[in-house]
Amino acid sequence: MSVQPCCVIVGAGQAGLQLAVSLRDLEYAGRIVLVGEEACVPYQRPPLSKAYLLGKVEPDNLQFRPSTFFQEKKIEYYEGVCVDSVEREQRQVRLSSNEVLSYDHLVLATGASNRRLPLPGIELEGVCELRSLADAQQVRDRLSGCRKAVVIGAGFIGMEFAAVAAQLGITVTVVEAASRPFSRALSNDTADYLAALHREQGVVFRCDAQVNEVLGDASGHVCGVELENEDRIDADLVMTGVGVVPNDSLARASGLQVDNGIVVDEYLATSDPAISAIGDCASYPSAFSDAARVRLESVQNAVDQARTLAQRLTGQSIAYTKVPWFWSDQFDTKLQIAGLSAGHDQTVRRQQAGKRGFSVFCLRGDRLLAVESVNSPADHLLARKLIEGSASATKEQIEDPDFDLKLLINN
Amino acid sequence: MPSITYVHPNGERQTVEVKSGTSVMQAAMAEGISGIVAECGGSAMCATCHVYVDPEFVEHVPDVQEIEDEMLECAASERRESSRLSCQLVVSDEMDGLVVHLPETQV
User: Fold this and answer.
1) Residues near B59 by Cβ (< 8 Å), separated by ≥ 6?
2) Per the CB 3.0–4.6 Å rule, which of A3, A96, A129, A230 could disulfide with A82?
3) Cα(A249)–Cα(A82) distance, rounded to whole angstroms?
4) Who contacts A19 (Cβ-Cβ below 8 Å, separation ≥6)?
């Protein structure tokens, strides 16, 4: 009697779930075990910092698939269970439920965790973060009684929250260590545009500023923050959004190579050929960063890496070469980013007459690295194709609204 | 509650009842209807929830907005007059009986 192979997937976020689904779609001939540490059906995270907080979506609408789906697809979903250790020699994992699972292939899709600020007062009631549905539920509850909010960190999560809070009539102050919001994620042009949008809606920025301490009242509830220069800002809610750290401790403990994430090759394989890693936790060499390692936190990265790996595990080994893309919603503005802008030395703005949207093209020399599109999905879609083909473009071509950029697509 | 019928490329039909205010995409996800991917979760960012509205209902659904219009251009399956992103189709009582056809592929 032949024994069925078994693929164990650690982590039931967007990457882990997509892998399970894609393996079944590609007729993987074996068991698929999906282990998730949260005690619920896998759900979408992007709306948690946006529509969910505004009350436009309910938890039921966040589920990727109904609970019956797993049985139908013969995906063994272990919810509320952690993987405590990997025993590579025996090819087995030990679960927090004390169960031991043998694997033929193990996939780490463990995601990332929010970075914690080592600040006095950070444990006070009313200091929040956003990652899980439980976090978002807590924030949503607190928003109803909130009048003043302080956001620490002007990255995407912090700014999406700021936009929501401002829309709800809350006075919002954003404290950022760098000299401008979004400085790690966006070109200065796009960052300044979005910051201006926030200011118009009443959001106040304190850039080049550090929080010294989170202040509490007698009941242990947050009442504000104190900056390094001793300025005090009142708040009944403090949101922290200061980046993430990859969940690579399981890989580390198993002796796999780890370097700002679980190190994988272009096939998403770790240093152990029986183990792969995908999604937020995986550090891979990207064709769109001159083969430098990147670790991306996005839906696209999670989903496309899962699909690529599913192909390898069903016999069609291909390298992961998808163009990275990202999005954010703030107020009624849609931001879409294609490519990786790190290392750009020039930005060029392109705007079509009569359109409210525009795009910022990030170049190194003539090589197009990334395009940030504001309310211009057509530009974004074109940008993905341009970047996929390593297109070059000149400043004059980009600036000229009559020049058809499609002519630059390399096939 | 209004009902929506999803017609798969092989002709198979699935009919579900949905609350008004739910999008055609959300209803499909909740019912586990394959053929709608909805990678971006309904933000009109990915064009993987593409459907063709049945000719009989084209006039009963709200108009395509600019963002959706641009995104539809990148749908994986052919764009037609009746093409919509189902995340942008919010079901109302007037749309009871809506029939949408699923494309061959979403990615």
Assistant:
1) none
2) A96
3) 12
4) A9, A107, A109, A278, A306, A309, A310
Measured between its terminal Cα atoms, the distance across chain B in Å is 31
B 39-68 residues inside an 8 A Cβ radius of A: 39-46, 67
Q: What token pair was written down for A256?
A: 């796999």
pTM of the model: 0.94
Q: Are A297 and A112 in contact (CB under 8 A)?
A: yes
Inter-chain CB proximity A377 and B26 less than 8 Å: no
Q: How does A213-233 read in b/e, with b if 16+ C-beta sit within 10 Å?
A: ebbbeeeeebbbbbbeeeeeb
User: Tokens 């995906």 — which residue?
Assistant: A75
Using a CB–CB cutoff of 8 Å, tell me whether A140 touches chain B: no
Number of alpha helices (DSSP H) and beta strands (DSSP E) in chain A: 10, 26
Residue pLDDT, tens place only, A47-92: 999 999 999 888 888 888 888 999 999 999 999 999 999 999 999 9
Tokens 């995407």 locate to A156
Please tell me the distance from the alpha carbon of residue A29 to that of residue A18, in angstroms, as a whole number.
Answer: 17
The CA angle A117-A165-A378, to the nearest 5 degrees, is: 100
End-to-end, the C-alpha distance of chain A in Å comes to: 49
Q: Which tens digits make up the pLDDT trace of A194-216?
A: 999 999 999 999 999 999 999 99
The one-letter amino acid code at B33 reads I
Is any Cβ of chain B less than 8 angstroms from the Cβ of A303?
yes
Beta strands A112-114; A244-246: pairing state: antiparallel
ipTM exceeding the 0.90 mark: no
CA distances A48 to A175, A247, A367, B18, B34, Å, are 21, 20, 36, 23, 24
